């Protein structure tokens, strides 16, 4: 693989993967990104121009996608509408980008005979009870809860159908909640860190008991690169780093990092249909492909992330006020 097309490569996780490729391989990268509100030019700054090219375009536009795909050896597909709360306010861009966009890409790789990796989420499996000893595996039945997760579940099914019916050379990964630099302030961890930096209080949906299985975005990138190189065609791999924490625990870790009292947060209106718990069993990826996360300790990764948001206020501050106004209008 010498030339890789990364869709959504200007977003939080896609840009991390582009940096991963540039630092650890000699491949040339093309980023195809529509530059929605979630994209960031800054996340791609300082990359060598002879290694990374940005094409601004929509994955649902076949006239853009088809000629571009033929120029590459593989497509790694990150582009998506990614925020559950937004999908509850307006599902339409989620259906267009996540379903129609994935369909357009699949048709392009089918015609061109190009390798495809589909980046998806653990949310396709719905949720687990807090005391359920089981975690999600590749065999867990699909049961998505939100318009976002339903659109990602549908996109996964499209990929599997294109593998089986058309022989497309594709793999799928379903990863748990990512954290790290360049994550938009609408998301849980950046929202709480930046609230505290601004002298405000973290906002917990409902009781704060919901559990997420946190993984650093660097570890997600190394897993996707492992699957792209060594994954078996047609297979799905779950990506996770044993990082289960409830939301209250995460908020209290952030408060502690700033020397604020452990009860210095607000309970706000819960998310409709809020999934209770996600938990990933990544045994298949670890045993078959030999992948291991580099971040053994969520506390250390979170502390570095807190410091990153302290150091990059110029980046997130222009978006903060509008994000908070949208949440406030919903009592969140
Ligand atoms: P993000 O919202 O930060 O970035 C998405 C990127 O896709 C943006 O740069 C945006 O401009 C681009 N994009 C959106 N619509 C597009 C379109 N129609 N055409 C071209 N580009 C478009 O998202 P993220 O958190 O980086 O997530 C990336 C992928 O990883 C998504 O597929 C998501 O489902 C998946 N994922 C995310 C997480 C997580 O915790 N954030 C976990 C597992 C899987
Ligand atoms: O599990 C993978 C998924 O993780 C990805 O597929 C999604 O793209 C990504 O956004 C993320 O989805 P979540 O809905 O889990 O992430 P979010 O950051 O929105 O919320 C994390 C948890 O925190 C969730 O239980 C809701 C809660 N929350 C969120 C916000 C924004 C709060 O309690 N307060 C908040 O202000």
Automatic annotation (TrEMBL):
<dbReference type="InterPro" id="IPR016040">
    <property type="entry name" value="NAD(P)-bd_dom"/>
</dbReference>
<protein>
    <recommendedName>
        <fullName>dTDP-glucose 4,6-dehydratase</fullName>
        <ecNumber>4.2.1.46</ecNumber>
    </recommendedName>
</protein>
<keyword id="KW-0456">Lyase</keyword>
<dbReference type="InterPro" id="IPR036291">
    <property type="entry name" value="NAD(P)-bd_dom_sf"/>
</dbReference>
<feature type="domain" description="NAD(P)-binding">
    <location>
        <begin position="5"/>
        <end position="303"/>
    </location>
</feature>
<dbReference type="GO" id="GO:0008460">
    <property type="term" value="F:dTDP-glucose 4,6-dehydratase activity"/>
</dbReference>
<dbReference type="Pfam" id="PF16363">
    <property type="entry name" value="GDP_Man_Dehyd"/>
</dbReference>
<keyword id="KW-0520">NAD</keyword>
<dbReference type="InterPro" id="IPR005888">
    <property type="entry name" value="dTDP_Gluc_deHydtase"/>
</dbReference>
<comment type="similarity">
    <text>Belongs to the NAD(P)-dependent epimerase/dehydratase family. dTDP-glucose dehydratase subfamily.</text>
</comment>
């Amino acid at each position: 693989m010498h030339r890789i097309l990364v869709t959504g490569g200007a977003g939080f996780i896609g840009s991390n993967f582009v940096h991963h490729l540039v630092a650890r391989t000699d491949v040339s990268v093309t980023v195809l990104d529509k530059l929605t509100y979630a994209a960031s030019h800054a996340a791609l700054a300082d990359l060598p121009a002879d290694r990374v090219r940005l094409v601004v375009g929509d994955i649902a536009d076949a006239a853009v996608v088809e000629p571009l795909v033929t120029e590459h050896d593989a497509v790694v597909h990150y582009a998506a509408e990614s925020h559950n709360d937004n999908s509850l306010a307006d599902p339409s861009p989620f259906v267009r980008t996540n379903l129609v966009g994935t369909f357009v890409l699949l048709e392009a790789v089918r015609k061109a005979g190009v390798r495809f990796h589909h980046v998806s989420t653990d949310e396709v499996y719905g949720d687990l009870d807090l005391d359920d000893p089981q975690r999600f595996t590749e065999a867990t039945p699909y049961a998505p809860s939100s318009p976002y997760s339903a659109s990602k579940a549908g996109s996964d099914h499209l990929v599997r159908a294109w593998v089986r019916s058309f022989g497309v050379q594709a793999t799928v990964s379903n990863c748990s909640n990512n954290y790290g630099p360049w994550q938009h302030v609408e998301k849980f961890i950046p929202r709480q860190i930046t609230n505290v930096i601004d002298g405000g209080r973290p906002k917990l949906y409902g009781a704060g008991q919901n559990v997420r299985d946190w993984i650093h975005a660097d570890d997600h990138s190394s897993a996707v690169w492992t699957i792209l190189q060594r994954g078996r065609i047609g297979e799905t791999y779950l990506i996770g780093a044993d990082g289960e924490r409830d939301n209250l625990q995460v908020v209290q870790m952030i408060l502690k990092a700033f020397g604020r009292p452990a009860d210095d947060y607000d309970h706000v209106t819960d998310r409709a249909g809020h999934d209770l718990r996600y938990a990933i069993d990544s045994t298949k990826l670890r045993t078959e492909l030999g992948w291991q996360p580099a971040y053994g300790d969520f506390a250390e990764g979170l502390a570095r992330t807190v410091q990153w948001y302290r150091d990059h206020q110029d980046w997130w501050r222009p978006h903060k006020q509008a994000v908070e106004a949208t949440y406030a209008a919903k009592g969140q």
